[in-house]
Amino acid sequence: MDFDSTADELYALDPSEFIGARRAAVARAKELGDTTLAKNLNALRKPTTTGWALNLLVRVEPESVDRLLELGAALRSAQQALRAGELRSLASRRAAVISALTDRAASAAQDRGRPLSETVMREIGQSLSAALSEPDIGADLRRGRMLGSVSYSGFGPAALASVPEPTAPAPSDAEPKGQPTEAARKQAQARVSEAETAAHQATSELDSATARVNEAAQKVSDLREALSQAEQESRFAESARRTAEEAAERAATKLTQARDLAAEFDT
After folding, report:
1. Cβ neighbours of residue 130 closer than 8 Å, sequence gap 6 or more
2. pTM of the entire predicted model
3. Distance (Å, rounded) from C-alpha 121 to C-alpha 97?
4. Residue 187 burial (10 A CB sphere; 0-12, 13-18, 19+)
5. What is the pLDDT of residues 228-246, one digit of tens each?
6. What b/e string do you get for 202-211 counting C-beta neighbours within 10 Å, with b at 16 or more?
7. Residues in Cβ contact with 88 at an 8 Å cutoff, skipping those fewer than 6 apart
């Protein structure tokens, strides 16, 4: 019995079964004398419906989720390398991929007797978008232990949305303090974190701008199509008007001729 396999089993369950199964797992860990495992398992939180649906999606469509995360990596790579053409092509696929995965999550939940509300559907799409934009969120999603929805605005997730790593037992010997190499490592990590945050923010802003450009381009295309249709209808109407005008002139001529003929009989 270990934390990862037990957590995977728990987060594969329907939310209504979670508490009872967690209680039983904690009891087994205690019977085995593993108090650390029992404590970590007892700290696991029950997922919301959104979290459960995301975890279900990862289990029924692992390859599709992998493709979503690969698309996110490709978008970040194209943005960093300033490959505008590739970026536009990848960005145009983003909405379709997220929509398809959201529909698949809804279908899988429906098959298990849990139809999803519109709110949950929106939260799933929002979470998938965050996973695509932020590698850490994507890794959390892929593990299949999401607690609920998550959003991304360029500065990391708004709140804890995935099961954290378990607490390890305290080591018997304390780590030596004051080593310069450790301080340097932490400083380097802090700089990397700052750079990643800035890069992620730039990617998110670029994604939003690209989406707005695509939306505007679609509106222009729709307006051009509507204008073309209106111009065609105008031409048809003008043709019909000319035909009617000619018919009216012929009818007027016949009427004049008929009146002249009638006048001859009257005289």
Report:
1. 137, 150, 151, 152, 157
2. 0.58
3. 14
4. exposed
5. 777 777 777 788 888 888 8
6. ebbebbeebe
7. 210, 213, 214
